[in-house]
Amino acid sequence: MTTLYDDRRPYDNFDATTREWDAIFIGGGASGRFGSSYFRAMGGNQLTIEMDNHLGGKCCKNACVLHHYLYEIAVELDKARIWDKKEYWPKFPQKNGKVEILPILRDYIVGREYVFDFMFHQSKEQLKLQFMLNRRASIVDPHTVKVEGKGDFKTKNIIVAAGAGPAMPNVPGNNLKGVYTYANFLELDYEPKDVVVVGASKSGLPWACFFNAVGCNTTVIEMMPALSQFPIDDDVRDYTLRMMKIRGLPVLDCTTLVSINGNGSVKSVTVKGKDGQEKTIKADLVYLGTGCTPRSKLVAPLGAKIGPKKEIIIDKYMATSVPGVYASGDITGGVMEMWKARQGGMMAAKNILGNPEAFETELFADTVHTFYETTWVGMTEKEAKEKVGQVFVARMPIQGYKNWLPLPLCEGTMEFAHQWTDLSGYQKIIYDAKTRKFLGAQHVGYGGKDSFQYLLYMIKQGATIDDIANLTELFINPTHFIQLSRLRSGMKNLVDLG
Amino acid sequence: MTTLYDDRRPYDNFDATTREWDAIFIGGGASGRFGSSYFRAMGGNQLTIEMDNHLGGKCCKNACVLHHYLYEIAVELDKARIWDKKEYWPKFPQKNGKVEILPILRDYIVGREYVFDFMFHQSKEQLKLQFMLNRRASIVDPHTVKVEGKGDFKTKNIIVAAGAGPAMPNVPGNNLKGVYTYANFLELDYEPKDVVVVGASKSGLPWACFFNAVGCNTTVIEMMPALSQFPIDDDVRDYTLRMMKIRGLPVLDCTTLVSINGNGSVKSVTVKGKDGQEKTIKADLVYLGTGCTPRSKLVAPLGAKIGPKKEIIIDKYMATSVPGVYASGDITGGVMEMWKARQGGMMAAKNILGNPEAFETELFADTVHTFYETTWVGMTEKEAKEKVGQVFVARMPIQGYKNWLPLPLCEGTMEFAHQWTDLSGYQKIIYDAKTRKFLGAQHVGYGGKDSFQYLLYMIKQGATIDDIANLTELFINPTHFIQLSRLRSGMKNLVDLG
């Protein structure tokens, strides 16, 4: 296969006779590409300028897709490890005591080319987008974008969708060889043995579990109480952490990174623990899951309003403080997720082309990957009790039962459920006991993520326990919410089940 | 662990002072147990009589749960087989050229005890059901049930939920050793090598794929054109069949079973093929995925109306032709699925206790397991074109693209998508191009099942492409419907994407 992605030469695909564009998108990542597509679909004349050599952004380059790739391999290796005792299961691979990481990354790098190529094909041939690759853009004024090597482009509107880059903690040794973020992880050129992951975060935990699953001695350090940043109940948090602990993955929480130590390359990290004492942890690799910083300096020439975390401030209509200039995606800070980037681009397009709609980002389903996905939507039990008073909760596993629950609580754990029942997941659903309305749900397991976006729709529709009990479930689901709701929904006064 | 399930002694858990019950449920399977729970939750006084030694029915004994257990093991072994070439992946197990089946079944039989115990605990302690186990019931008149060893019980209503048993094709040799259905499969006591599965059906295909995945030389024979009984489009059907074919699992369709041959035990089967010619296929095991027959003889003493497939005829309110007698679940024929059994029991309860509601069973999501799940809901593309005219279809993989699609189209295929892209699934979503309404969806892959029950809710709510484009997807989903909808939903006149 030949692709465009072998070199860094600029690539241009647009009508050069255009004198003024309806909109120029700076950045062809999730937000820029989806925004451009929607804009184009509405009939607008758009141009998208991407500084990298492909569309689709960092997601398919080295961030979200890599994150999920490593997560899925971690799950498979974890299962192989658990099932290792079964005579009918392949033996867990042991080469120098661990699974090699470099071939896994090589596979990713090869496969990535196909993703880039598909994004290119779909954008050009199906969506008819106009775009440039390998070209840097800067903003001259609200209606002029300067493109390196091409000069000035006039436009009615600018949508800034240039994303964010890794945020590095400002500690000694943060530039040593062996310090990685998602942005340089694919440059790894040795097999690590002792790994410290900084941040029990959405971006740190899947990497930590991957390192553990391949057999690295791995430790997570986290400034806050573990998983406290996620709106989940204590029982769900405890289960998630316990599943890491029994696999030999400690999370040192309320612990601060003091320094990364080494001579040229990483040898250890020094941390300050809960007890206020400093201690040193051996490490030949440090992975920083410490978040991202928006690339907002792009709008500095305009004097557009910037927030304390370098995010571009926008209103509900995606407009910055400068008329004619919009921003969308990671560059606007807050939750840096796909749906927000994609949908934000689409909302910017709608608002520019005269179909204004406010972008509501308050309610969303979210997930953190460990060896499982911990997924949540809506209110927690605790929050619901504070807000509506009497709530009804259905939970699996149930409490006070002498054995662990032998039902698979997620996809791919029929065998866990029958053999290592504790490992098969955890879930709960929360209703308002008076109005019977569905308020929220949480799930630890595999294969439940896809449901949660639809569960949010049901919450927004005002669905009740009776609506959920009337759904037609497909046998054993990752989320048993329908069955559990059905068992109790005959009651006028709902009594917890779980 | 000690359970009640070691012996066949009767077990009674009910208030013996009750002179007349509100309802007696005959059968404590999916329908009887959920119906009883709902009835109890509504305040009714119920008694449930189960002839087997556990609640939960054949589902958790030897049917659906076993079916899913074998499916999931087949998926894992299939992945192990595919990934076998990767240096970081465990080698595919080879013992006498195949994976042993008997230890897999032993694991299931052990694990099943926990399921029985949980069902018992939940029913007794949490749901406060009254029930008998290991007791056969017969119907004396519409208000009298005779229980073996206990005498007559008076009741206002009877709900017949006694399920169905395997349907055996009437051919010579159907009683040879080596002929199995789900009902006796756990009695398997040898390692088969050459397997013929009769029926490319929901019940036959997962077994066939399991036999193939463990390394048995396996052939499926089917009377009809392959997969023609499922409401899916040709492209989805072709992909499903191709995925079986490339794994060495042939489906001989339009082929009839003539005889099962052997001397005491099975040696071969004779079939009549498409060409009208008979031929013989070597086999040391024949698995019959030829459906189930309702146990409707229970209602014969009442003269209740029975249909041509021995199903008890009921109205939309679960009532049989005999006043006071209801029926629910597999015994009523048609689609024999969990949701129908469970929800039917619940509807019977509602209708008896004066909260009448018609049970709509026309629209439902459904799935067939092969090496993947092929799942569908609503209209096919073909049906939609006939019914509404102009439709919009979004599909992955897209057509006319020189490479295969490198995006994972389902859970657990990030690595497939990057390496064996053809294997990562298939999906499509169908909208009415004029009203923009969501009409139907189909998915081949893993982890999509759980979404489809919610997608049906959206169809019933009248959701449009714009509603789906506004959902907040959780990154890479098994079902890419949201993203695909978003890319095009800006268009007034929708143009297919895929």
Word description of this protein:
The structure is a homodimer of 498-residue chains. The first copy, chain A, is α/β, with parallel strands linked by helices and 498 residues long. In chain A, 28% of the residues lie in helices and 23% in strands. The first copy, chain A, contains twelve helices and 23 strands. Chain A has helices spanning 30-41, 57-61, 64-82, 102-126, 205-214, 234-245, 338-352, 381-388, 414-419, 449-460, 465-469, 481-488, and strands at 11-13, 20-26, 46-49, 131-133, 137-141, 144-147, 151-160, 164-166, 179-180, 194-198, 217-221, 251-252, 256-263, 265-272, 278-282, 285-288, 292-294, 325-327, 366-369, 373-378, 391-396, 426-432, 438-445. In chain A, strands 1, 2, 3, 4, 5, 6, 7 and 18 form an eight-stranded mixed beta sheet that branches. A five-stranded parallel beta sheet of chain A has the order 9-16-10-11-12. In chain A, strands 19-20-23-22-21 form a five-stranded antiparallel beta sheet, with helices on both faces. In chain A, a hairpin with a 3-residue loop joins strand 19 (366-369) and strand 20 (373-378). In chain A, helix 3 runs parallel beside helix 5 (205-214). Chain A is globular and about 75 Å long. At the A-B interface, helix 1, helix 3, helix 4, helix 7 and helix 9 of A face helix 1, helix 3, helix 4, helix 7 and helix 9 of B.
